[in-house]
Design brief:
Elements (H helix, E strand, L loop, with lengths): L1 H22 L8 E11 L11 E16 L2 E14 L7 E14 L3 E20 L2 E23 L2 E19 L13 E14 L2 E14 L11 E13 L5 E13 L6 E14 L4 E12 L9 E15 L2 E14 L5 E14 L4 E14 L4 E15 L1
Antiparallel strand pairs: 1-2, 1-18, 2-3, 3-4, 4-5, 5-6, 6-7, 7-8, 8-9, 9-10, 10-11, 11-12, 12-13, 13-14, 14-15, 15-16, 16-17, 17-18
């Protein structure tokens, strides 16, 4: 918590400087807002091997205002999101995000950015006990502070240093109709991340390297624990080539070390890679693809992490200035490190975006995914279809 407080103080100092600059007569932008409403049909509202179909509505709204100019500015923003199911109301979610970002440029060689954000959410879910499915609701709060320092080293070379601290507090889980007493099911977490990235540009080629450290402290909860504290370190080299027609080819190669903080339960170095490509094609087509492998610590059913490999290909077609079609496929394998369970998934999407006016877009999309969890022998299949209206005010 002391580390987060230090980051908050540094960012607040930057915000205060921008506020003082504003008093000197710098411009203030009007409030800008966006909003969207989506109507979905899903074949698997519970995200389980016992599919239950339902309709739901997803609403999003953002509000943003900027103070200052390009060399010194303060941006305040807020985002609200809510989902409501017609029948399976136990899956309803709500979330609010508030953020402040201060940016300051010192001459042509130094840039400093500080960000503070606070997110509060109510997440609906379900708990299966044999043939019985209980609805659950859990409140979560996340406070994050981040500092970023950018340095122009000359000769088309830049160095970016980052430090962040994120504290996640999870409340008691409440059960549907209070069938069971409210209890803690998810632990609190403190995530500290440090990173450095060096990049040099030579014509159409940008290359460099990066180093990162992620230190996660997890509250001890349950026996065996539902989550483990760990440290993750990474080193990688990367390069991106841009063609005259706008096509790109990117390659990143490196290694990651993941180890638990106590008991030496897990400690292993694995290769990390990412290959990306994009290519404009005749008649308004564009092709994009990616293939990567890495540790997955944010989205895993394992108490520690998973090893994720994923490949995806996407194509888009601009039929007219106001109409774009897109489609894509993916395949992935996520191996739990401690449970030794494999989650093998694949799927596709198809999407159409119509620009009804300068500020209104209408989107229609279908997603399909199928997942097989090997050790527990669970097969999940989900189809999600929606139409959305998205507006910028």
């Amino acid at each position: 918590m002391r580390r987060l407080a230090a980051i908050v103080l540094f960012a607040a100092a930057g915000i205060g400087h921008v506020g003082a600059s504003r008093a000197g007569g710098e411009p203030v932008q009007d409030w800008q807002s966006t909003g969207s409403i989506e109507r979905h049909f899903t074949s698997n509202a519970l995200d389980s091997d016992r599919p239950v179909s339902d309709w739901y509505t997803l609403m999003r709204g953002t509000l943003q205002r900027q103070f200052g100019e390009d060399d010194a500015k303060l941006t305040l923003s807020g985002e609200l999101q809510a989902s409501r199911y017609d029948q399976i109301s136990i899956e309803d979610d709500r979330a609010l995000l508030l953020a402040a970002e201060a940016f300051r440029r010192f001459g042509a060689a130094v840039e400093l950015r500080g960000t503070l954000s606070y997110r509060v959410a109510r997440e609906g879910d379900d708990l299966s006990i044999g043939p019985l499915t209980l609805g659950t609701a859990t409140a979560k709060q996340v406070l994050t502070g981040q500092l970023q320092l950018g340095l122009n080293l000359g000769k088309a070379t830049t160095l970016i240093l980052e430090a962040s601290d994120s504290v996640e507090n999870v409340g008691r889980t409440h059960f549907q109709h209070d069938i069971l007493p409210a209890t803690r099911l998810d632990p609190d977490r403190d995530k500290r991340r440090f990173a450095a990235r060096l990049t040099r540009t030579a014509g159409r080629l940008a290359f460099g390297g990066s180093a990162s450290a992620l230190l996660v402290s997890v509250e001890e909860l349950g026996t065996p624990p539902v989550g483990l504290s760990f440290a993750q370190y990474g080193l990688r080299a990367e390069a991106v080539m841009t063609g005259e027609d706008g096509s790109t080819l990117g390659l990143a190669l490196g290694a990651e070390l993941l180890r638990t903080s106590v008991n030496g339960l897990y400690s292993k170095v694995r290769p990390e890679w990412q290959l990306t490509a994009s290519k404009p094609l005749p008649l308004g087509f564009e092709l994009r693809g990616a293939w990567f492998g890495r540790y997955e610590t944010a989205d895993s059913d394992d108490p520690l992490a998973s090893w994720l490999q994923r490949a995806e290909v996407e194509t888009s077609l601009k039929l007219r200035e106001d109409l774009v079609l897109a489609a894509g496929v993916f395949r992935e394998n996520k191996r739990n490190l401690l449970f030794e369970n494999d989650e093998r998934g694949h799927g596709f999407f198809a999407e159409a975006t119509y620009k009804a006016s300068g500020k209104l877009h209408i989107v229609a999309r279908v997603d399909f995914s199928r997942t097989f969890k090997t050790v527990v022998d669970i097969r999940e299949e989900t189809t999600d279809i929606f139409i959305a209206m998205r507006s910028r005010l």
